[in-house]
Amino acid sequence: MFDFRPDADLPKSELYRELVNAAQALVSGERDPVANMANVAALLAEYLPELNWAGFYRVAGEELVLGPFIGRPACIRIPFGQGVCGAAAADATTQLVPDVHAFPGHIACDTASRSELVVPVFVDEKVVAVIDLDSPRVERFDREDAEGVEALALALSPALADLSS
Ligand code: SME
């Protein structure tokens, strides 16, 4: 059994350090990318407060396809360049969106979502997936969250290597 309960008072830097360690423990020794994404989505949803959606989209050609997640059913295919996820994949950069209503082209899968953080996962310098976090609170995510999830994406790269084949 995996039991992981963060201390609510932890500073964000420490919270993300623990999250990355826990994710590495979860994926250690397993190459199946679906299993690894599923467990990390569950970890994110359990560990980070104020989220209504946490999960993955994976790259398939010139679009993103829905991967494992926790939250309401979501749009399945997102072309590169569309929405927050498509922007992260097309530009290979983190997208930190304080208010999704102010983001041109935001794709509303869950109307409860008010802010969003999307971080690409790289394998051999190519984007193979994005981590998508949605919150019902405006300005839920800041630079520390972005850096924390970028550290997670870096740590997950070997566990998602088979997505590039
Ligand atoms: N809002 C995202 C779509 C995915 S859902 O949030 C799960 C976007 O604009 O790309």
UniProtKB/TrEMBL annotation:
Domain of life the protein comes from: Bacteria
Family: Belongs to the free Met sulfoxide reductase family.
Organism (species): Qipengyuania oceanensis
UniProt xrefs under Gene3D superfamilies: 3.30.450.40
GO molecular function: L-methionine-(R)-S-oxide reductase activity
Residue ranges occupied by any GAF domain in the UniProt entry: 32-165
Protein name, as recorded: GAF domain-containing protein
InterPro entries recorded: FRMsr_CS, GAF, GAF-like_dom_sf, Phosphatase_reg/MetRdx
GO cellular component assignments: cytosol
Source organism phylogeny: Bacteria, Pseudomonadati, Pseudomonadota, Alphaproteobacteria, Sphingomonadales
